[in-house]
Structures are given as structure tokens and as C-alpha cells.
Amino acid sequence: MKRHQAGITATLALVALSMTVLTSITGCAADHYIAQEKQRKEILESAYQRALEEKKMAEAKHVEKKKAKADQQAEQRRLQKEITLLENEIRRLDAKEKVLRDELLRLRRKDGGNGARKAELEREIGVQQQTIRQKQHRLDTLRSIL
User: Fold this and answer.
1) Closest CA to 125 of 91, 102, 144, 109
2) Residue 80 pLDDT > 80, yes or no?
3) Range of the domain at 111
4) Number of domains forming the structure of the chain
5) Residue 121 burial (10 A CB sphere; 0-12, 13-18, 19+)
6) 9: pLDDT confidence band, cut at 50, 70 and 90?
7) pLDDT band for position 36 (50/70/90)?
């Protein structure tokens, strides 16, 4: 009987030891699983944050591109308006110069016309030509920019 009792005690000791080992292994496996899940969660959160930042950066770039395009279009409209104004001014100055030249030609044909008036007309024509050249240069510059 003692033998039987010793066998039972040994069996119980082995079962208790096996349960302790299994509990320890199960606990280690659970700890390992929990650690893996935490790490996976951190990786997912990090990836989510990166995706949010990239999305914000992409949106900011898109807004910046739109703003730059709008600024460029506004500048082009401004330049086009200035070009139109210069073209009109040059046409007006050309017409004025033509009137002055016609008057000077009329005075020259008149033989004995007023010499002071001729000199004044020649000076005014020179001023008109200089102004036209300056405005034409500005116009050419604006066209090259546009």
C-alpha cells in the first residue's frame, strides 16, 4: 500500500510540476502574444500618423500649387492689362506725332512760314518719338515676360 501511495504521490507531484510548467509556458506565450500585439498596434499607429502627415503635406502642396497658379494668372492679367494700355498709349502718341508732322509739312510748304513755330514742332516731334521709343521698349519687355 505504501508503494501504491508513493506512486500516487509521485504521480501527483509530476502532474503538479507539469501544470506549473504548462502554466509558465502558457504565461510566457501569452506575454509574448501581448508584446507582439502591442508592437503591432504601435506599428499601425505609427503608420497611421505617417499617413495623416503625408496627407496633410499633400493637401498643403495642392493648396500651394493652386495659390501659385492663381498668383501667376493674376500677374498675367495685370501684364496683359498693362500691355493693352501701352499699346493704346503708343497709338495715341503715333497719331499725335502724325498731326505734328502734317502741321510741320504744311508750314514748310508755305515758304516763309514761322521759323519759331517750325522749330517748336520739330522739338515736339522729337519728344513724341522719344516717348514712343520708351513706351515701345517697355511694351517689348512686358511681352517677353508674358
Assistant:
1) 102
2) yes
3) 2-145
4) 1
5) buried
6) confident
7) confident
**Predicted confidence (pLDDT) at residue 117 exceeds the cutoff of 90:** no
Q: What is the DSSP letter of 111?
A: S
- Contacts within 8 Å (CB) and 24+ apart, 131-136: 131/93, 132/90, 132/93, 132/94, 132/97, 135/86, 135/89, 135/90, 135/93, 136/90
What single letter denotes the amino acid at residue 3?
A: R
| Grid cell listed for 77 | 492679367
Q: How far apart are CA 92 and CA 126, in angstroms?
A: 15
Contact 98, 132 (CB under 8 A): no
**Quick one: three-class SS letters along the chain?**
CHHHHHHHHHHHHHHHHHHHHHHHHHHHHHHHHHHHHHHHHHHHHHHHHHHHHHHHHHHHHHHHHHHHHHHHHHHHHHHHHHHHHHHHHHHHHHHHHHHHHHHHHHHHHCCCCCHHHHHHHHHHHHHHHHHHHHHHHHHHHHHHHC
CA distance 70 to 67: 5
Question: Distance between CA 22 and CA 56 in Å, rounded?
Answer: 50
